[in-house]
Write a structure and sequence with these properties.
Layout (H helix, E strand, L loop, with lengths): L2 E2 L12 E14 L2 E7 L4 E7 L5 H9 L5 E10 L5 E2 L3 E12 L13 H6 L1 H4 L3 H23 L3 E2 L5 E2 L11 E4 L2 E5 L4 H11 L1 E9 L12 E10 L3 H22 L1 H6 L4 H5 L6 E4 H14 L3 H7 L9 H9 L5 E4 L12 E2 L2 E5 L1 E6 L4 E9 L3 H11 L7 H5 L8 E7 H9 L20
Parallel strand pairs: 1-2, 4-7, 8-12, 14-15
Antiparallel strand pairs: 2-3, 2-5, 3-4, 4-6, 5-7, 9-11, 10-11, 12-13, 13-20, 15-18, 16-17, 18-19, 19-20
The structure holds one RNA strand of 75 nucleotides.
Length: 445
RNA sequence: UCCAGCAUAGCUCAAUGGCAGAGCAAUCGGCUGUUAACCGAUGGGUUCCUGGUUCGAGUCCAGGUGCUGGAGCCA
C-alpha cells in the first residue's frame, strides 16, 4: 500500500512505495523511457516510466501528458544522482498513474518570455520555479519579521485600511465613496500605532498600504505591504539598534530556512551572510558631503548631473544608490532636514532645521527599505506644526489628544516588504516580489 | 506629468524600401537515462491602429493606442 507523501519528504521514503499528487512540470522522453518532472507545491521530483514496467494504457498516458496536467502517481522511490528536482537526488519509478485533468496548451514554455506576457499570465507564472522560490522567501521574511517582534515584546495591533484623512499629507491617496462621504485607503498605520502604544507600549501593524502616486519604476507598487513597529520611551538611537537587530535576524532566518530557494535564484549568499549588526550610521550632513565629494571627483558628466545635491534637498534614488554603494552592509542615514520630512518628526535639540529621522538604505543598489523617526511628543510643538503645515485640525484632533494624556518620547518606522524581498532575493524588479502586483498600468489578473 | 525606447506566428526574435522567416510550443512519427534532450515531418500571420509618401511599406513620415525603463514622489 503506497503512502501518500509530499515531495519535500521524499528522502525519508527511499525504497518505499509512495503516492504523489501534483502537476506535470516538464516531460521528456526517449521512446520506451519517459521522464516526468512533477511539482506538488513542496518541491519537484523526477518520475520515470519504463514501458515494460507498466500497462500499455498507463504508458500511453504518460507519453501524452502535457505540461501542467494534474496527476496522481504511485511508484517506488529510489536514490539516483542523475535525478533533477527540489530537493533532487531521488526519483520515482512510476507503477501507476491517474490523470486528474489533461492540461490544455500551456502558454508558459521552458523558453524565454517577455515581462508583459508573464505579467498577463501571472496566475500561471506563480507556478514557475523562480516565482515559487521568491514567494516562499517572501513568506519566510514576513514570518521572520513577525516572529522576532512577537518574541521581543511587541504586540500586533491592526490599524484600519479605510481612513477618514491622510496620514501624511504628502502623497496621493486612493479615494473611495464611504456611504456618501469621502474616505481614503490607508497609506500608513503609524498614527494609529501612536495611539496603540499608549495601551501596549510596543506595537506593530502589518498590512497592505496604498499610494496613488503615478510612479512607474522598478521600486514602486500602488498596493504594497508594510510592517510598522512603534515604541513608547524610544529614542532614535534605540530605533536604529532595534532595526539592525530585526533586519539581521530576518536575513539569518532566510539563510537558514530558504537555501534551496536562494540557490534557484542564484543569489550571492556571501552578500547576505555579511548582513550582521551593527550597520553603518551616517548623518544626512555627512551623506551630502560624501555625495558632493563624489560629484567633484567624477569625470562622468551624467553622474555629475544625477548626483548633484545641495544641503537641504531630499535624496533622489540615484543619491540613495550612490550612498549605499559606499558600504558593504546596510547604512542608516539620520537627521534629515526637517523641511523634507513629515510634520510629526522631532526636531534635533538646538538644531531645529534637522529632525530625528532615519532611513535605512540596503546595499547593492536596493535603496531605502525602512523609514522612521522619533515623533514629536510635546503638545504645543505638535499643535504648532499642524497649524503651520495647514492640516485640518479637526481630522487630527484625536492624534493631538495623544499628547495630552501621558505623552512620552516615542519612535517607530515602516519597512516595505516588497523592497526587502527584492533585496534579499537579489531581484532587479519589485513586481515579482508580490503575488499579484498592482502597478500604474496593471491590475490584471 | 516629463524624458527615452519598443510593438512581426501561441512565445522569444530575424527580415538593405522588393516572395513573411527561424527556434521553442502544438500535431504526427522515431529513439531505454533525459536535465530547456535529440532526429524527421505537418499546421500556424489583420507585421498594434488610422492616414500618408512610393511602381512597391513589416521597413520611411504623421497622429493615435499599448507596453517597458527612467525622473519626480516614496517604502
Amino acid at each position: 500500500m503506497a503512502t501518500q507523501i509530499t515531495i519535500n519528504q521524499i528522502a525519508d521514503y527511499d525504497g518505499q512505495e509512495v503516492e504523489l499528487r501534483g502537476w506535470v512540470y516538464h516531460r521528456t522522453g526517449k521512446g520506451r523511457l519517459q521522464f516526468v518532472q512533477m511539482r506538488d507545491g513542496t518541491g519537484i521530483v523526477q518520475c520515470v516510466a519504463f514501458k515494460k514496467e507498466m500497462t500499455e494504457d498507463d504508458f500511453a498516458l504518460v507519453k501524452s501528458l502535457t505540461q501542467e496536467s494534474s496527476v496522481i502517481i504511485t511508484g517506488s522511490v529510489r536514490a539516483d544522482e542523475r535525478a533533477p528536482g527540489i530537493p533532487g537526488g531521488y526519483e520515482v519509478g512510476i507503477q501507476n498513474i491517474e490523470l486528474v485533468q489533461m492540461a490544455e496548451e500551456y502558454p508558459i514554455t521552458p523558453k524565454e518570455h517577455g515581462t508583459e506576457f508573464l505579467m498577463d499570465n501571472r496566475h500561471l507564472w506563480v507556478r514557475s520555479r523562480r516565482q515559487w522560490a521568491i514567494l516562499r522567501i517572501r513568506a519566510t521574511i514576513i514570518s521572520a519579521l513577525r516572529n522576532w517582534l512577537d518574541d521581543n515584546g511587541y504586540l500586533l495591533v491592526d490599524t484600519p485600511i479605510i481612513t477618514p484623512a491622510a496620514g501624511e499629507e504628502t502623497t496621493t491617496l486612493f479615494e473611495i465613496d464611504y456611504f456618501g462621504q469621502p474616505a481614503f485607503l490607508a497609506q500608513t498605520g503609524q498614527l494609529y500605532n501612536e495611539a496603540n502604544i499608549g495601551s501596549f507600549g510596543k506595537v506593530y501593524c502589518f498590512g497592505p498600504t496604498f499610494r496613488a502616486e503615478k510612479s512607474k519604476t522598478r521600486r514602486h507598487l500602488m498596493e504594497f505591504w508594510m510592517l510598522e513597529p512603534e515604541m513608547a520611551f524610544f529614542s532614535l538611537e534605540d530605533l536604529m539598534d532595534m532595526e539592525e537587530q530585526l533586519i539581521s535576524a530576518v536575513v539569518a532566518r532566510v539563510l537558514e530556512k530558504r537555501k534551496p530557494e536562494l540557490d534557484i535564484l542564484e543569489r550571492d549568499l556571501s552578500q547576505l551572510e555579511s548582513i550582521t549588526a551593527p550597520f553603518y550610521r551616517i548623518t544626512y550632513d555627512e551623506a551630502v558631503e560624501r555625495l558632493q565629494k563624489l560629484v567633484a571627483e567624477t569625470d562622468d558628466p551624467e553622474q555629475k548631473e544625477l548626483l548633484n545635491i545641495e544641503w537641504g534637498e531630499d535624496f533622489g534614488s540615484p543619491h540613495e544608490t550612490a550612498i549605499a554603494a559606499m558600504f558593504d552592509k546596510p547604512v542608516f542615514v539620520y537627521h534629515y532636514p526637517t523641511a523634507v520630512k513629515a510634520f510629526y518628526m522631532q526636531p534635533v535639540d538646538g538644531r531645529p532645521e534637522v529632525c530625528r529621522s532615519v532611513d535605512l538604505l540596503a546595499p547593492e543598489g536596493y535603496g531605502e527599505i525602512t523609514g522612521g523617526s522619533e515623533r514629536i511628543y510635546d503638545k504645543d510643538l505638535l499643535e504648532e506644526r499642524v497649524r503651520t503645515i495647514g492640516l485640518p485640525r479637526e481630522a487630527y484632533a484625536w492624534y493631538l489628544d495623544l499628547r495630552r494624556f501621558g505623552s512620552v518620547p516615542h519612535a517607530g518606522f515602516g519597512i516595505g516588504i516588497e523592497r526587502t524581498v527584492a533585496w534579499i532575493c537579489g531581484l532587479p524588479h519589485i513586481r515579482e516580489t508580490i503575488p499579484y502586483a498592482r502597478m500604474l498600468n496593471r491590475m490584471y489578473p
